[in-house]
Fold NUDIX domain-containing protein.
Amino acid sequence: MTLNTYNKEDKILLAVDCIIFGFDQEELKILLIKRNFEPEQGKWSLIGGFLKKEEILDEAATRVLQHLTGLNEIYMEQLHTFSKVDRDPADRTLSVAYYALIDLSQPDKNTLLKESAKWFTLKDAPKLIFDHNLMVERAMARLRRKALSKPIGFELLPEKFTMRTLQKLYEAILDNKLDKRNFISKFNSLDILIKLKEKDTSSSKKGAYLFQFDAEKYKRKVEEGFSFKL
Amino acid sequence: MTLNTYNKEDKILLAVDCIIFGFDQEELKILLIKRNFEPEQGKWSLIGGFLKKEEILDEAATRVLQHLTGLNEIYMEQLHTFSKVDRDPADRTLSVAYYALIDLSQPDKNTLLKESAKWFTLKDAPKLIFDHNLMVERAMARLRRKALSKPIGFELLPEKFTMRTLQKLYEAILDNKLDKRNFISKFNSLDILIKLKEKDTSSSKKGAYLFQFDAEKYKRKVEEGFSFKL
DNA sequence: GCAAAAGTGTTTTACCTACACCCATGC
DNA sequence: GCATGGGTGTAGGTAAAACACTTTTGC
């Protein structure tokens, strides 16, 4: 297929790195892996891999995540492309960063394929290789910005959740306390949650009503330009 | 420097494409160029070029813009990386899109180096090659989103401008009419403009006060997490 | 009966919105 | 003196923010 038109141009290695956020009903976590090849073998890193010639970026990100953790059907979003010339000392490599949010209360998502992969709370995360810390910072900023205008984070919760859990998630993302009553009435007014008859009694004697995300309603609202301010 | 670690990985061509928005006090425009090489020679395209091995993306974007238009010291921002496998029929090529805003009232920015480059109003822009129309759409969406929460667009204006001009810019970006009084009091309350004693008499007999962007104040506010809602 | 978490409303305040008239000047 | 664009303020509604007590139940 190649027409030889671009023969003189440089070809470059393209990596994909994934910032995987998880929420375990209490804290926001991030998935890291101990690198098992040079350079920087043995250091902690984001999960990543190289883009193959016949692949699009979204596929590569999905493949990398699936391969190193067994996780699949995870919603990922492209974040930014990092290009500092010496960011990887082994070779000139660009990296396209992706980020995702996953629900750690589902046991199958909590168990990781590789021994070398591990969940860290954001505060305890070690220093990472290359520019990976920068990537995490940027992903965190994006997550925060999105959380303020979109009901992001349904990917980070089990199918059924309590208002308390939802609020804790938002508090973890935004890193501040929110008022319980205002939070609830805000989400009620958005009209994208279904209140179930069931209760969750795992964390209290009284039990808390479970809610579900109304994906249909939300989709319709998004099409009309839905967004809110928390 | 290469450690041979990544020898088996694919290397890929990386392009940089620039969506250059301009504002001439009346309308929002976009800079396009008639392509003078294959494939798609003679068709309209964004300005673009290939990333060189020793270059970072921001530099490549700047170089491409400078080389094809003579424009320099333009603020650009990375938008998104496009990776559809057959987006360029000549060879597998990824493209990192950048966007910029420039002020067309300064005569030196209005004159273009190459005959083949031309400013189009958004409505009159022709169909573009590859996925460039998609890039423009996405850049436009980003610009709109940013305009609603940041005093973007100071890059699109001369150093001194009237409130009327600023409002017209916002109307062009958001594609709707705004109320004069509300707009002015909004911007006044943000406290990032300096009202000058000078007036601009080019568009009226009475003359309109000129304003300047207070970069210092704005920087301080940004550090404190400044943002607004228009 | 008390500890622990759930649930629930009201008041105040800030901001957004809609709206219309006078002013200064050049011709 | 009139046409053209420039400048200005207020009132009403909506949404955000602050705030405290009662309920349920297991122990």
In short: Residues 116 and 128 of chain B are 14 Å apart (CA to CA).
